[in-house]
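Pasting as-is:
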Amino acid sequence: MNLKGKCAPPKVAVSPGAANFGTVAVGAVSKVKNITIKNTGTSDLIIGSITQSGDTSFAVTANPCGTIVKGGSCAVSLTFMPSAAGSLTGSLAIASNDPLKGTVTVKLSGKGK
């Protein structure tokens, strides 16, 4: 018997699409914010990398994501510790094997006071 076919692809869904940490005193650490990554497809979703860019005041504090099964999810934890006063921005790039959305970007923002 020769079976051929394709598995339905994984599908990444990220929420929220942006994280605003509000106003935080310079040098203080914000409350943790979580970004949830969910697999709404039917094949395993493989998270290749999670990369923070922009202002270095934003940090990934927990990243348990690797392979997410159908219907599964994981949470990436972030904090904000402003190094200067004023509005600060960054982004989180989540790369996966989703063929339609290989990389999803989450906008990060906060204000140091």
